Amino acid sequence: MLRMSDIEAQVRRALDLTGTESEIVPCDPALADTAAFCQAYGYSLDESANTIVVAGKSDPPRLVACIVLASTRLDVNGAVRRRMGVRKASFASADDTMAATGMAIGGVTPFALPPELEIWVDGEVMRRERVILGGGSRSMKVLTVPATLQALPNVTVVEGLAVPVVRAAPVSPE
Predict the structure, then answer these.
(1) What SS3 state is found at 134?
(2) Which is it for the CA torsion 149, 52, 27, 129, positive or negative?
(3) Is 145 among the domain residues?
(4) Which of 13, 39, 64, 79 could disulfide-link 75, Cβ–Cβ 3.0 to 4.6 Å?
(5) pLDDT digits (tens, 9 = 90+) for 21-71
(6) Is residue 173 in a domain?
(7) pTM of this prediction?
């Protein structure tokens, strides 16, 4: 298994190959999960993008990496399942994600994924000025422009891959 420093080095090389502007943002591994990271480091859920590995129930099982904004919910049982052409799809387990990518949940990134793993990017991600994504480990993130994603191999932009999350309005005390 690759060490995290090896994964981080691969991510940096993959970013260099895109020819786009990117910044590595150090992160406390305890704050790598999206909500905690955004709150601690001052990023909006609407500019934070998660890379989620989905497993299609087929023989052999099919995996795909999906990138969606943190302010949305991946439509696993609708758009993803239909696009995969399977009867059932689900989020890959933490162990399956690690086995397929070499990366832990909270650090999964589209940069340095195995070349056979397709990457689907929700169209809303591409409409942002910038996005912050996992960096390959729980100790770094990547701040970049969406065009960086399109410079990667195996990337397809998919409209409607995610649906907006309806958040309850805060209740004001009377």
Answers:
(1) strand
(2) positive
(3) yes
(4) 79
(5) 999 999 999 999 999 999 999 999 999 999 999 999 988 889 999 999 999
(6) no
(7) 0.91
